Amino acid sequence: SPAIPAVPTCHTRQLVIKMYVVAIITGQVRLWKKAFANPEDALRHGGLQYCRTDRDVECCLRAHRHDVETIYPFLFLGLVYSFLDPDPFVAWMHFLIVLLGHMVHTVAYLRKLRAPIHSVSYTLAQLPCVSMALQILWEAARHL
Question: Distance (Å, rounded) from C-alpha 92 to C-alpha 47?
Fold first, then answer.
């Protein structure tokens, strides 16, 4: 299927890289804010008083948790969807919309943009996933 190369090469690679970047940003914010999750790290960086939570670190953690909760299911759905032999342009648009929604969502979290941006970008990224899931279910039901 011509859509299969769109899954690993077009947008999913950028999503996985983005997850790693958010993890790195989280670590850097922890160092910058001196807010460590465990006493061992706090002792290494100045003392137990730095074993604490921080609003900015929590923001990064929420962005990363959102990625883990939504990107992995998308990777699975996108792979299965690609085997259904979809129209390559439609498949490409599904993947692009998910990528853009996740990018905007991450920027909105890390830059603390107004709240509607979070929910709109989340919804935008989930619409293609719902579409792919429904198409997968439809194909599975057709073959019963």
Answer: 50
Structure tokens at 89: 């342009």
Burial track 93-116 (b if 16+ CB lie within 10 A, e otherwise)? ebbebbbebbebbbebbbeeeeee
Model pTM?
Answer: 0.86
C-beta of residue 13 within 8 angstroms of C-beta of residue 7: no
pLDDT in tens, 13-50: 899 999 999 999 999 999 999 999 999 999 999 999 99
Please provide the DSSP assignment of 90-137 as one string: HHHHHHHHHHHHHHHHHHHHHTT--HHHHHHHHHHHHHHHHHHHHHHH
Q: Where are the domains of the chain?
A: 6-27+54-142
Q: Is domain 6-27+54-142 annotated with CATH 1.20.120.550?
A: yes
